[in-house]
Design goal:
This protein has a domain of 80 residues: Structural Genomics Hypothetical 15.5 Kd Protein In mrcA-pckA Intergenic Region, Chain A, CATH 3.10.290.10. The chain contains 5 helices and 5 strands, in the order ααβββββααα. The longest helix is centred in the C-terminal third of the chain and has 15 residues. The model has no long low-confidence stretch (mean pLDDT 84).
Amino acid sequence: MRIDKFLWCVRYFKTRSIATTACKKGQVKVNDKIIKPSRDIYPTDKITVRKNQISYVLEVLDLPESRLGAKLVGMYVKDCTPKENLEKLDLLKYSKDYYRKKGTGRPTKKDRRSIDDIYENDEFFKENEEE
């Protein structure tokens, strides 16, 4: 099976064309060698996928017939990603949460609703509306 098709089948990429592009960019390695999207893979191959600034390490257990459901992926792939790489993923999530400081830029939809609630519940604004 082709590497791009395999990565799509085991749900590491949403579409096969995204998997092909990742292979062409050198983000996918098989047994520590950069490969083309058409390279065939076999059980016991080690695949390294660089995705979202994280290097995932996978071991091929078997080749699926077609795209799998999320629960069945474990039967075909063993995730050997080091814990340090997964900890980087957590840090990236936390850093993105605080990217926009409060009070800067345009209010989000949630901020806008909070502002509207304050105006509706404040007696000062209710008195001015009645006049």
